[in-house]
Amino acid sequence: QVQVAESGGGLVEPGGSLRLSCAASGNINSVYVMGWYRQAPGKERELVASITSAGSTNYADSVKGRFTITRDNAKNTTYLQMNSLKSEDTAVYYCNVDVRIWFRRYGFWGQGTQVTVSS
Questions:
Q1: Is residue 96 within 8 Å of 109, Cβ to Cβ?
Q2: What's the Cα-to-Cα distance from 68 to each of 2, 49, 72, 82, 100, rounded to whole Å?
Q3: Measured between alpha carbons, how far is 28 from 106 in angstroms, rounded to an integer?
Q4: How many other CB atoms are found less than 10 A from the CB of residue 87?
Q5: Cα-based torsion angle of the residue sequence 94, 38, 60, 118 in order, rounded to the nearest 10 degrees
Q6: CB neighbours (10 Å) of residue 6?
Q7: pLDDT given for residue 2 in this prediction
Q8: Does the pLDDT of residue 97 top 90, yes or no?
Q9: C-alpha–C-alpha distance, residues 91 and 99, integer Å
Q10: What three-state secondary structure class fits 70?
Q11: Residues 67, 39, 57, CA angle at the centre, nearest 5°?
Q12: CA torsion angle 78 20 37 103 (round to 10)
């Protein structure tokens, strides 16, 4: 069984910073794309940032220049460094891990961590 554990969410003031962590564990043969998504009340879940096993990154236009996604392949962990946070960034942030187990591909979601940006 694959587990995805997230941490780092919380309450932060506008302009502040927060670092989210997501670690995947279990009998995983390979980890491909790792990504962060977010969902605000009444809105659809959207991609925030993703990173491939080779280090190629992709960001939503709304977070470019402020957020940075990285990964540690040895630890099957991805990080999302969030700087210059705005109230519009308030949402539940979910980690998604695209893996191979034996001969099949699967996507696993974390339980989500709340990020609230407010003064």
A1: yes
A2: 25, 8, 14, 7, 25
A3: 10
A4: 11
A5: -120
A6: 20
A7: 93
A8: yes
A9: 25
A10: strand
A11: 35
A12: 30
Q: How big is the chain, counted in residues? A: 119
User: Which amino acid type is present at position 103?
Assistant: F
The greatest distance separating any two alpha carbons of the chain, rounded to the nearest whole angstrom, comes to 49
Span 12-71, pLDDT tens digits: 999 999 999 999 999 999 999 999 999 999 999 999 999 999 999 999 999 999 999 999
Neighbours of 69 (CB within 10 A): 21
DSSP annotation of 45: -
Residue 1 has pLDDT above 90, yes or no: no
End-to-end CA distance of the chain: 40
Query: Per the structure block, which two tokens stand in for 10?
Result: 């919380």
- The CA distance from 95 to 31, in Å, is 13
User: What number of CA atoms fall less than 13 Å from residue 42's CA on the CB side?
Assistant: 0
Return the C-alpha torsion angle 23, 28, 33, 34, nearest 10: -10
